[in-house]
Structures are given as structure tokens and as C-alpha cells.
Amino acid sequence: MGDRTSRRHGRPDRDKHVSGALPRNPSNASADISDVGLFATAGAVGVLLIDGKSKGDSHAFETGVLGAEAMANSGVVYAVLQLIAERERPLQGTGQGHFFQTSGLDNSFPSGPTIITRTAASTIAHEYPKPWVEWLAYGTAGAVSVTRFTSLQHFPSDVVVGSRLGYLIGRHIFHAHCKVGLSAACIAK
Q1: Residue 187 CB partners (closer than 8 Å, separation 6+)
Q2: Domain regions of the chain by residue span
Q3: Is the dihedral of CA 115, 116, 122, 125 positive or negative?
Q4: pTM score, two decimals?
């Protein structure tokens, strides 16, 4: 019964299977790449905010403000889900990724760096809908997502959920608050 159930409903089983294929002693390179991507994306939002304000560039300023708002919102969603899910990280416990096992805000589900980076990327990409901006923003967010998994900080589903939530939060904040005329993607409400 357990085997049939795991095949039918078993995302955690797939998670542990895929994560189990990685070496138990991940290199620091994945964690370093993840950190650089997270801080670079958050830094880009900050630079757009400060530079936009100081130079009177309303488009850059809006991008910074909406990016900061979206990241703050994703931080709240992340914290609430962390407190509810209490999921073990891949190197905790038996490595099975059980839910409702840990406490606090240092759990596996969802991936915080993934949700925050994807949120900022989504906001920036919506503000500047140019292929090179989208590739850079989403490519950086994608690198953070992959390296959170390869560094065994998260299971694949933690990263997928964080990525999807981040994208949706960034898109929502952009469409709810953008000013028509600043971005080609902003349409009248």
C-alpha cells in the first residue's frame, strides 16, 4: 500500500529520490552561487530604487519600489509557509523531508532564496520586458533555484513552489501598482 500511495501522491518520495542521488557532502560552490544570485538580484532592486530617486528616473524608481514591496510580500508568505510546513531539510533527520518535524524559520519548505529572487526577477522583467533583461533576471533566479537544490539546502519541490510563488507575487505587485506609460507591460486597469 505504501508503495502504491507514494507513486500516486508521492512528491516527497520523488524529492528524496532525486535528492538522494546527490553526494551527501555538497561543495560550497552551490551555496556561494546561490548567495551571489540572491544578493545581486536584491541589490539590483536597491540600486534601481536609489538611482531612480536620485536621478528622477520614475521608471527605475517604480521598479525599485515595486521590487522591494514584492520581496517584502514574498518574505511574509515564506515565513508563514515555513511556520506551517515545518519541513526537514535534505540533510536533517533521515533525509526524507518529512513535514511538521522542525520549528522556526530555518526549514526546507519553501525555499526562501528562491521565492525572494524569483519575486525580484519577476518584477524587474515585467518592468523592463526586453529579452535580455528577462534572460538575465530569470537566469539569475534559475541559478539560485538550482543551486539551492544542488547544495542540499532544499528538495526539488521546495524550489519549484518557491519559484512559482515568487513569480506570481512579483507579477501581481507589478500589475496592481504599475503606472501606465512607464513600462510597455503595464496596461490600464
Answers
A1: 180
A2: 28-177
A3: negative
A4: 0.83
